[in-house]
């Protein structure tokens, strides 16, 4: 059967946008080289025209220069066409890459949406509220345990509040006196009324000068002489 009908040949895949762009750029580079070569010839003919006198020789040089100039214009037109094709291919490549990026973004969002839905199924508001209530109960229970462990042993609880207030007032009074350097604490003060005592003398009395006799010696008082 293969000998009669033959085998269907598989078509080769068409060039990609990148391959087409590279091929066109190579053609453009080749045309640029030709234009540069023609520019060199035009420069040489222009110098010859300047040095040649008007006449048949100068006209012949001008004719050759015109032919080179026409070729340059033709190549420049081809190069512009290739530039336009390259620009169009670059726009297509940009759009293609944008669509690929959008496709990848969409796939990533779908996967994230699926994961989010699966996670939300495992979370329930009722379960969260129940867990919060249990945590609050545990915290309260822990506070009660800490308060119980912090109790003091051997401290009586039946104190007289009026007696305690009196001691507190006395303590505050003592603290106020200690703030003054010359103040005397309450426990050193006498509760009795101060006694009226005479004032202390300001100084000692000066003795009177003794009388002198005829010899200048002090005389002895008569009251002090015994008979």
If you had to describe this structure to a student in words, what would you say it looks like?
With 227 residues, this protein is an all-alpha fold. It has a domain at 16-120. Helix content is 66%, strand content 0%. The chain is built from five helices and no strands. It has helices at residues 2-5, 17-51, 56-122, 125-149, 161-178. The chain is elongated. The model has no long low-confidence stretch (mean pLDDT 77).
Provide a brief overview of the structure.
The chain has 227 residues and is mainly alpha-helical. It has five helices and no strands.
Task: Compile the SSE list and pairings.
Elements: H1 2-5, H2 17-51, H3 56-122, H4 125-149, H5 161-178
Helix pairs in contact: 2-3
InterPro entries: Snf7_fam
Family: Belongs to the SNF7 family.
Pfam families: Snf7
Give the low-confidence spans: none
Strand element count: 0
Q: DSSP helix count?
A: 5
- Helical proportion, percent range: 55-70%
What structural category arises from helix and sheet content?
mainly alpha
**Average of pLDDT:** 77
What's the story with the biggest beta sheet? none
Order of helices and strands: HHHHH
Rg calc = 64 Å
Write down the overall geometry: elongated
Oligomer class: single chain
End-to-end distance: 194 Å
Strand content: under 5%
What characteristics describe this protein?
227 residues; mainly alpha; 66% helix
